[in-house]
C-alpha cells in the first residue's frame, strides 16, 4: 500500500503534494545528517524488581541544525522507506558495541545489557549478520550483553529469513526481544518458532493498565505467554508506582519508563548506576 501511493499521484492534490515534498525534504536532510554525523544515541535505564539498573535501551536522536531534536518516530519511517535505515542503524549498533566493549573493563558497568531497536528492512538486509559480526569482532564487544529489539510487523514477510538471521546471531550470544508486542497483527503462530529471549509489553497497554480492563487483560496475556514460552518479560512506558505495582502483580519483573529515567546521555546512565552502587 505504501508503494501504491507513489504510483497513484495522478491529479493535483495540494495536501498530498505538500506531504510528498515534505517527505523528499526529510529524505535529503537525513542524507545530510548522516554525512554530518548529526545522529546521537540516548540511553534509557531498564530495572529489575529491586529497582536496580540491569541495562538500557538505546534510542536514536537527531539534532537538526534549525529544528532542534527530531524524534525518531518522525524520521524512522522515512529512513525505512528510503533504505537510509541501513547505514543509520549500522551506526547505532556500532555505538552500542563500542559502549559494551568499554564497559567490559569497568566492574560497575560490565553486567549491563544494551537493547537496540532494529527495523525490518535493516534486519532482513543480506549483509546485516555479516556487518554485525564484524562490528562485534572489531570492537571486542561481548555479544551476550547485546539485545536486539524486533517488532511484530517484521514477521509479516520473509519469516524464514528473520529466523535464519536470529539463529546466526544467537551463535554470537546476541539475544532477541519482541517490541510493541500485541500492537500489530497476531503472530502467535510464529512466536513459538522464534528463538526469542524476551517479550516487551508495549507502552500503549501500560498507559491505562490501571483503568482499562482490556489493557490489563492484554498485559496479563503477554506475561502469561512469556512464562509459558519461558521468556523474560519487560514493561515499557512505566510512569508511576501504581502501574509498576500492578504489572508486578501480573508477574512482570522488569521495567522501563520515566519512573526510572528518561532517555538521556551515557553520563546520566552511568551516574545512576554508580549512585545505586553507593547505597
Ligand atoms: P520504542 O522502541 O517503542 O521506544 C519507546 C519509546 O517510548 C521511546 O520513544 C521512549 O523515549 C518512549 N518512552 C520511554 N519511556 C516512556 C514513558 O515512561 N512514557 C512515555 N510516554 N514514553 C516513554 P522515542 O525515543 O521517541 O522512540 C520512538 C520510536 O522510534 C521507538 O519506539 C522505536 O520504534 C524507534 N527508534 C528509536 N531509536 C531507534 C533506532 O536506533 N533504530 C530503529 N530502527 N528505530 C528506533
Ligand atoms: Ca524499543
Ligand atoms: Ca515499544
Ligand atoms: Ca513503538
TrEMBL record:
GO molecular function, one term: cyclic-guanylate-specific phosphodiesterase activity
Keyword annotations of the record: c-di-GMP, Membrane, Transmembrane, Transmembrane helix
Domain EAL: 23-277
GO cellular component, one term: membrane
GO terms for biological process, alphabetical: cellular response to nitric oxide; regulation of DNA-templated transcription; signal transduction
Organism: Thioalkalivibrio versutus
Protein name: cyclic-guanylate-specific phosphodiesterase
